[in-house]
Specification:
292 residues; alpha+beta; five-stranded mixed sheet; four-stranded antiparallel sheet
Length: 292
């Protein structure tokens, strides 16, 4: 049975300390800017776990780190200890939550530097919007390609790397064993009447076909981003819908995130998730308002 006042439990939760049921201890949530920690930071957290916690490090579904078993009286000590390596506690409340990013930065399928993009989103909207109260929490994920490993379309806003193949039809030889057709993971590329045809309704812009043609019919692809909004998972699941099919600059992505947050702040009702807001006001209205 906990002896700590309920109001105090609520206060320290806002600092990133979540009450461990039936005890006077807490799990401290450590923010990662983009799902990445350096070796020195990991050593620091190991020291915190040994000095103040129960010796364990756990990981959340949003790539933050939690250290359980922190006694109430050591909360301030933990905050100061992690600050030595530039880390902070938090990640709760009706605001922008820690940013998720897949390993697109190093993944062979990655079309974008996901970790660097997530760091910029972290700086501009997690840190920069700390004092901005939203109707509810707002989760952002950055995926490097349509594989969607971090499920961008199940977040309030998802950024997905794209690569639109630039097909030069005059270079196509209509090979009986087309390397592009063999490479395409969604059967969007087929050879018909001795010419390659790419179905735009099936193509997911994964970019795997770029450079695969023996005769250079697809030498390059136009890289950019798709942005989905209105996803969520949990007790209720909503699949995000596409806000914009293709954006070719990071700065435009940042502008759209900013306008989406402003829309949610203005149109959302208290304690209403963004997916519910979109259902209530209508997706067409939201898209028009955000992109105008």
């Amino acid at each position: 049975m906990s002896t700590i006042d309920a109001n105090e439990i609520k206060r320290v939760k806002a600092l990133g300390f979540l009450h461990n049921r039936g005890t006077d201890c807490f799990s401290v949530r450590i923010i990662t800017e983009n799902g990445v920690l350096n070796a020195t930071q990991v050593r620091n957290l190991s020291e915190v776990a040994e000095k103040f916690g129960n010796g364990k490090l756990t990981f959340t579904s949003r790539m933050t780190v939690e250290l359980p078993g922190i006694p109430y009286e050591h909360i301030d000590d933990v905050i100061e200890y992690v600050k030595k390596e530039g880390m902070h506690t938090g990640g709760t409340g009706a605001k922008v939550r820690p940013i998720m990013a897949c390993k697109g930065t190093v993944c062979r399928f990655g079309l974008q530097d996901t970790q660097d993009i997530a760091k910029e989103i972290h700086d501009r909207f997690f840190v920069g919007y700390q004092d901005v109260k939203l109707p509810h929490k707002f989760k952002i994920a950055v995926g490097g390609c349509p594989n969607n490993c971090v499920k961008p379309n199940l977040n309030d806003l998802g950024v997905i790397g794209q690569c639109i193949p630039q097909f030069e039809e005059e270079l196509c030889r209509g090979c009986k064993k087309c390397a592009i057709q063999a490479e395409c993971p969604v059967q969007a590329a087929t050879v018909k009447d001795k010419k390659l045809v790419i179905d735009p309704d099936k193509c997911i812009h994964c970019g795997r076909c770029v450079g695969k043609c023996y005769f250079n019919s697809i030498k390059s692809g136009k890289k950019g981003f798709r942005i989905d909004i209105g996803g969520r998972w949990g007790k209720e699941v909503s699949h995000g819908k596409t806000l914009i099919d293709f954006v070719d600059s990071r700065e435009e992505v940042m502008k759209i995130i900013e306008k989406t947050l402003q829309f949610f702040k203005e149109e959302g009702l208290p304690r209403e998730r963004f997916a519910v807001t979109l259902d209530r006001v209508g997706m067409d209205y939201a898209i028009d308002k955000i992109l105008s």
